[in-house]
Amino acid sequence: MIQHLLDGILVGSILSLGAIGLTLVMHTLRFANFSHAELLSVGAYAALVFDGIFGALYPQIRSTLDPLSLTWSLILAILFAMIVTGLSAILIDKLVFRRIREKGDELSMVFASFGVAMVLRNLISLFFGLKSQLFSNDIAFAIVISRDPMILVKPDQVFVLVAALMVMLLFHLILSRTTFGYALQAVAENPVLAQISGVNLSRMLKMIWLIGGSLAALSGIFYGLNNQINPVIGRDLVLPIFAATIAGGIGSVYGAVLGGFLVGIASNLVLMILPSGYSPAVPFLIILGVLILRPNGILGEARA
Q: Mean pLDDT throughout 83-111?
């Protein structure tokens, strides 16, 4: 049980990062952006490309950071991938969602997000192929924490969990301690009222897309570090991320974090009693259960 719990916490940290950006977009623009999960794939492949570029230009930074499988080039690539993915999210909004927002309604944007998701997924497949890839071909051995019960942990998993928690803590400090954070919360809560109060709505919307895209990229990269990189990362994680967002409460950043851990832990604990093939059904059950018991989510509030 402890092993499944630890694995669930790790998965939950990855889902939480992806859910934060999604909940901000859904609450601010009032539409379910199904293309958000594809930004995880964009981020993972962007990091793979930058890792190769930096490693070729500066071979000395390809040394592995023992006991991790990461290299200095990959760490640098992660930062660039976050920036590129965040800018990609802004570009997608400018080319697609903003145009529909000005002329259509929220339902049209939902359908458009399906189209954007399919385009992104197939573009990735076209350029990188359907074969799964790895950030590192080195074999990462797990460390035995306990033999009774048997608990195995990989150093990369510890790094991912600690890094994800640090990013969440940093985002919490930004939200609660800075003027930008207050403005971001105001826009997410009521864009019109925030604009009347003097907040530059256009600039803040770009920042929401930038933050959401960057955190989605980090989520995809962390997923790839512990699994494999393939073009269907977004397709596989779209439901858990939406489940985390809805369970925590749309618009609540802290709810997204809580929902991410809830979905991650529940999906792994269910493996103790059910075959792995039933695990994808857990997010559905969580969504249904939360909507029945608390329609606005655990930390969400009713919005007019």
A: 90
